Structure formats: structure tokens, C-alpha cells
Amino acid sequence: MTKLSKCLGPHTSLRLNMIVLCVMAFILLITLGAMFSFSHRVLKKEAVNGAWQTLDVTALQIDNILQSVEETTENVYGDLRQHLNQPERMYTYSRRIVECNPFIDGCAIVFRPGYYPGHDLYMAYIHRDVNGEFVTQETFANRPYTEQVWYSETVAKEVTCWTAPLKNEDAEDKPLITFCQPIFDAKDECVGAVAVDVSINELSRIVLAAKPSPNSYCTLVAKNGSYIVHPDKEKLMHQTVFTQTERGADPTVLEAANALLSGETGYKPFRMNNEDWMVFYKPFTRSDVSGRSVQNLDWSIGLIYSESDIFESYNQLLFLVLACALIGLFAFFVLCRMFTRRELKDLDQLTRSAQRIAKGQYNELIPDAQRDDEIGQLQDNFVKMQHSLAVQLNEQKQISSSLERRGEYLQQASGHSLETDRLKTAFLYYVTNQMTAPSVIIDNSVTTLCNNYHDISQKDAEQEVEKIKAQSKLIISLLDELVQITEIATGKEVNHE
């Protein structure tokens, strides 16, 4: 009964509910784990595919801008070659190039030293100011244009090209990339160059307007690591992809930077500002258009993707599902608790009845079962057991009462027997004590007769014989009484049996 009360204590339903809840939570955990593992792989695959599509679209958008600049320059260049003898018209051509293309920030038409009589250096430079107004200048930056790379390389190589980003003092504190086209005269001799500037800030603004996610952005870098496209103007102006590593950034940043400039295609994770990022990178390739220079720019385009953006919907779904799972488990626990308490109510009542019966309350009333399940059968069997126990207890009480009466009779008989034994002992002691004196007298008389039978007189001998007879009779009388008492006691015992 003690074991039953322990097993069916007041916390039985709670333990049962906790076991069921743990099993359900385990099954749910495995199911959700498998589901979210699959979802994680699918989302990552979709993010990777989306990143490559974004890179392709961004590269195409940038290339379209570059191509439009090239075409604008080429459209003006044909007429420009026919009027090389009119230096004043160079400003007109320069202005036309800037006006015809909103992506162009400025245009400089320059010639080799002394090409025009009376002009050692000749530059027709027109650009947009901060208000969008056209400004005419004859110089650019703080050095002669002949000392600047965009001119020297173009004239020396005599090829159409895009320069590396011009920054700081080389670009009048306005980062630029420049499209340079050599100017050939009628003799196909290179006499100058047309330099068309595209503002890196404006290019970044246009390209970054379409962001694939809130925290992601595209970047375009030159071979030397200078930024051509980046959302941070400070980096566009003064930094490269290696600046962060020089300031003690995570080593993975340097690995990502080297991968970005490797000229290969791929993606690499890195950690920056205590956040996890991924960079998707590929070489920036220009579309092959008839008549277009296919110069390899050695630029690389990358998409910086925050992993929080990649898995934002996944994390939201995970949080939502976990919240729903916890609420569902709690609701399941409450319902299961209510159900088990209702189902175990009769069993709990039966347990309490069993505990009271175990304490001796054998008349405990157990109601009849109102159900047909195992608990109802147990309750019916328990009632039958109680009835059977009551019958056995009554029989045991009767047997106990009979044994008690017999015990009392045996106790009384034992008392009488002890008293009889005591009387017998006392009587034997008395008889023995009474026989001592006659025996001594007989012994003395016999001794006298034996020792003095030659000298003793007839009279004395007769007296001694009379003493022996008298004492012998006394002993015989005592023995007769002993025999009679023994026969009486023996007869009583036989009658008793």
C-alpha cells in the first residue's frame, strides 16, 4: 500500500504531463531542426543565387554608364578631329560632351605642349559645380596636365582607356574615374587627349540606389584597391580595401580583400564590426560591342552582404515558429494536465481510500465505479478486495477470541497445576520429614541389636524389636497416606484428560 501511495501521489499527473511534454518537445525539436536546417540551406542557396544576379545586374548597369560615356565621347570626337585647327571650338565640344550625358561630371580636351601657336599648354576644361552649373577652366588640379597620369599614359600608349580612380589632390578633392581617348590629327599622329570625368560619388549613388537588402551594398574596386563604387564617401576619397586591415580589423577582412582583388569569382565570409558578412566577388568585365575598346580594366566588383540580411526572414520565421511551438507546448501541457487530472481523479480518490484502509479504517466506503476502463475495473476489484478482507478479518477475530479463551483456561489450569505441584512438594517434604525420626530410631535399634546380640538381655531385645515395629508401622502409615494421596491426584488427572 505504501508503494502504491508513492506511485499515485498528488504529483502523479504532473510527472506524467512532464514526461509527455518532454517527449513532444523532443519530437518537435527534431522536426523543427530538420525543417530549419533544410530552410537554412535553401535560403543560403537563394541568397547566393540572388547575389550573383545582383552582381551581374550591377556590373551591367555600371558598364552601361561607362559605355554611354564612351559613346558620347565618340560621337563628338569625329567632329572634333575635323576642327583641330580651331582651338576655341574645343570648349564647345567639351561643353557638348558634358551636356549630353548626365553621368559625365566634366570634360577636358588637352593638346601636347606647343600644338597651338602662342599656347605652351592648351586645356579646354568644363565641369559641373555643386549646383549643377557649368564651370569653364583652363587648368585641372595643382599640376600641369602633362604631369598627370590620365594625360601622360593616354598620349604615351595612344590607346583609349579608363584610368584608375583619381583622388585627393589629383582630382581637386572630388574622386573621379576618367575615360581618356587620344586625339589623332589627319596624319594619325597623337596630338592630345579627350578626358571625360565620371564622378565616383555620383556613380556610387546611382549604383547603390538599388540595394538588394537594407545592409548590403555593391562595391567596385580598381586593381590597386581604390574604391570606385562604395556607399561611404570617406572610403571613396581617402581609403582602399586594405585600410581596415591596417587599423587592426579582423584577419578575415584581409582575406576577403585579397579574394576580391584576385580576379577570380567566388564568395568569402568575413567578420567586421562584430558582425558576420559575406562578400561575393567577380572580375568586372565589359560587354563586347562592335567598335568598342576591349581594354581589360582589372577592376573587381563585389557585393557585401550581411548574414543578418541573408537570414533575416529565416530568423524571423525561426522566432515565430519557436514562439508558436512554445505557446503550443504550453497549451498542450495545460490541456494534458486538465485531462490527466480528470482521468486520474477516481484513481487519486481510490489511493486516499487505500491509505485510510491501510491505517486501519476498514469500514472506509468506496463508491462504485462509474467507468468501464482499467481504472473502473481497478475500483471494482478494490471493492471486492475490501469485502473479502472484511470477511477474513471477521474470521480472524473469531479465531483470536477462541484462542484468547483457551489461553485464559490454560493459564488457569497452569495455575492449578503449579499449586498442586507446590502442595505435592510440601506434602512430600512433610512425609519425608516425618519418616526421618522413625527411620533413625529403627536404625539405632537395629544397630544396637547387631552390635550387642550376645550381651543384650531378652527383655531389652524385645523392647528394641517393639521399637522397630512401632516405628515401622508409623512409616507404613505415612507411606499409605502418600499412596492414597497419589492415587487421588492420579485419578483426578485421568478424569481431567
Describe the 3D structure.
The chain has helices spanning 2-7, 12-82, 89-100, 149-157, 200-208, 233-238, 243-246, 251-260, 307-310, 312-343, 345-358, 374-452, 458-496, and strands at 104-111, 122-128, 134-137, 161-162, 176-184, 190-199, 217-221, 227-229, 266-272, 275-283, 300-306. The chain is rod-shaped. It starts with a helix and ends with a helix. Strands 3-2-1-6-5-4 form a six-stranded antiparallel beta sheet. Strands 8-7-11-10-9 form a five-stranded antiparallel beta sheet, sandwiched between helices. The protein is of the alpha+beta class. 59% of the residues lie in helices and 14% in strands. The chain has 13 helices and eleven strands.
